[in-house]
Amino acid sequence: MTITVHRLTYYPVKGCAGTTVDSAHVLGTGLEHDRTFMVVDAVDGAFRSQRTHPAMAAVRVGVLEGGAALSLSAEDIEPLRLDVDPDGPRREVSMFDRPLGEAVDQGDEIAEWFSDVLGAKSRLVRVAPGFDRDGWGDTPGKVNFADAHAVLIASTASLDDLNARITAGSDASPVPMDRFRPNIVLTGDDEPHFEDRVRRMTIGSVELAHSVRAMRCAVPMVDQATGHRAGPEPIRTLSTYRREPEYGNKVSFGAKNAVVCEGVVSVGDTVEVAEWLDA
Length: 279
What we know:
Blueprint: E1 4-10, E2 19-21, E3 23-27, E4 30-31, E5 37-41, E6 60-64, E7 69-74, E8 77-83, E9 90-95, E10 98-105, H1 108-118, E11 122-127, E12 151-155, H2 156-167, E13 184-187, E14 198-203, E15 206-216, E16 222-223, E17 228-229, H3 235-238, E18 243-244, E19 250-261, E20 263-266, E21 271-276
Parallel strand pairs: 12-13
Antiparallel strand pairs: 1-2, 1-13, 3-4, 3-20, 5-11, 6-7, 7-8, 9-10, 10-11, 12-19, 14-15, 14-21, 15-19, 16-17, 18-19
């Protein structure tokens, strides 16, 4: 059975809408441009998330000129072009109450724009030159402003199985893959959650290694098109069969991976699995 890449997506601003592409450079910290920027509280520098600001999901971000500029748009507000400052004034930032060090503040205009969109005083920051952050798990790797890992992988088989469970005997609607915000979606294997068992794989010229299963919070209950909460699915159904006792009984969907070898990955690439959990 041939496993291939079905979809590739990077998320320039953490928590905001993703950009789906046919091919991507994969760096040590994940897909190029992925979670390079982050919205933070204007006072204490704590990151903002769809957990508390679901409207972030509907903020569309385009990477222009190879990352030298961004285009941003959201409903009921004028779109904005931002000339990125790669090495300007610094601001202390944190995630999950853990300091991340200094990030590069992107100025007052974009700060006011995000503050208006989210209804809360915010700043936009970029990873600073020399930013060096470790992940954790079986293979820790490096990471930018993603929660803790470089690449999130999910499969069409996992989503198909979940949606069959959601709709069985109820009038609940299936959920799209974007609820889980994966970087790489795989297809070709009918086994739900086979991505959990892959310990090392090569896709194109990229080598990835398993870090940890992806634990899920409230974000998958946010409609990624509208930025509105639309729960209780899929968390309600996941809780019936995907509990993870070793992680505080949270539910999981997808697998987080570290980048072992940088390169290029494209839609349609064949996945070569070098090591399975049960091999």
